[in-house]
Specification:
Elements: H1 5-16, E1 22-25, E2 33-42, E3 45-55, H2 60-84, E4 88-90, E5 103-105
Antiparallel strand pairs: 1-2, 2-3, 4-5
Length: about 110
């Protein structure tokens, strides 16, 4: 999977269009690898995705709950950092999709 950037990009874009946990069989021929991913938000906007890579035989219900819990904690911490450091969100000038991901832009105070 990691040797194919286009496939990774497509998987992230699919995750970014959803509010739910997505799963992806990375190697459908051998069925050896699974990727679980979920988008995270800042200020109500989807800005990224968190992913877990693992074998096919994993405790899916436990990992779905863990991934969702981690996303909630991560979003809260990220919101605090964004507010404390006056970071704003911007849309990239060129996009690959109609629903582009957002990027973080930092303003440094010296």
């Amino acid at each position: 999977l990691m040797e194919n950037p286009a496939k990774v990009h497509e998987m992230i874009q699919r995750t970014m269009r959803s509010d739910q946990i997505s799963y992806h069989v990375a190697d459908p021929v051998n069925n050896e690898t699974t990727v679980l991913s979920i988008p995270y938000r800042v200020d109500g906007k989807r800005v990224g995705a968190i992913a877990l890579f693992g074998p096919m035989r994993i405790p899916y219900p436990r990992l779905f709950a863990l991934l969702n819990h981690f996303r909630n904690l991560f979003e809260k911490q990220l919101e605090q950092v964004v507010l404390a450091n006056n970071i704003s969100l911007r849309t990239p000038e060129t996009t690959l999709e109609h629903n582009p991901p957002l990027f973080l832009e930092s303003y440094h105070h010296e």
